[in-house]
Amino acid sequence: MAAKPKIAFFDFAGCEGDQLQVANLEEKLLDILEHVEVVSFREVHTGHSDNYDIAFVEGSITRPQDEARLKEIRANAKVLVALGACATIGGVNCIKNFLGRDVYSENVYGTRARWYPTYEARPLKAVVKVDVEIHGCPIDRGEFARIVKEMLLGRVPWLPDYPVCVECKKAGNVCRYHLGRMCLGIITRAGCNACCVTEGAQCWGCRGLAPSANLDAAREVMDQHGFDRKHVQDLMRFFLGDTSAPL
Ligand code: SF4
Ligand code: SF4
Ligand code: SF4
Questions:
Q1: What pTM was computed for the model?
Q2: With CB atoms 3.0 to 4.6 Å apart as the test, which of 119, 141, 168, 209 could cross-link to 194 if both were Cys?
Q3: Which ligand gives the minimal distance to the CA of 210?
Q4: Bond prior to 138 in cis (omega within 30° of 0)
């Protein structure tokens, strides 16, 4: 890779909240900019070049024409980074996959649905090879800065492979199951410091399944606390719809 790698940002179906997180890095962004050249970042500046080394790609693939564009980005980039839950695991866009194509097309486009071909949402890795994943909805700014630094040093970026519960315990939270609520932290990849639980909510699974997730044990915990399959599925489909985890 060049001494000062060229980086570019792209987006597909998503809210662009992850790029906003990058734009809001403030002084850390200035540090990063000393070591890279940004050739495309629509949220921050005008101009575009197809000459880039690292492509940061946000959003899910939801249309046939998205696939061609993503393959072109892949062909141009030495490293392709999936940015945020929509890109890494399909994320909230996958909710539509459970509705049926006619239903979601008509809900969004009404009588003009046939003019806008759209299909089931999928993560980037369903279409092209992804080199690095930055998880979350939205991504964590500090984690983004750390991962970029590791990439620039030529390292494979580290990601926690254990579940959110580990960080939740460290934070001293009362487990939501003890409060009669369901929580997907038991199967979700850590790295967010269990922020949603700490703030009084539960984990929805936005960082994807932890590689070490024990789905059988999770199902047992959910059963013991009286959560039926419909309840589990509803929560799973919020972010983890594309994983087909058999809960
Ligand atoms: S992962 Fe979340 S923040 Fe990022 S584009 Fe999707 S909905 Fe927006
Ligand atoms: S509240 Fe959720 S993340 Fe925290 S320990 Fe319980 S299951 Fe794990
Ligand atoms: S607690 Fe769960 S939903 Fe919240 S940021 Fe962490 S992984 Fe995402």
A1: 0.94
A2: 168
A3: 3
A4: yes
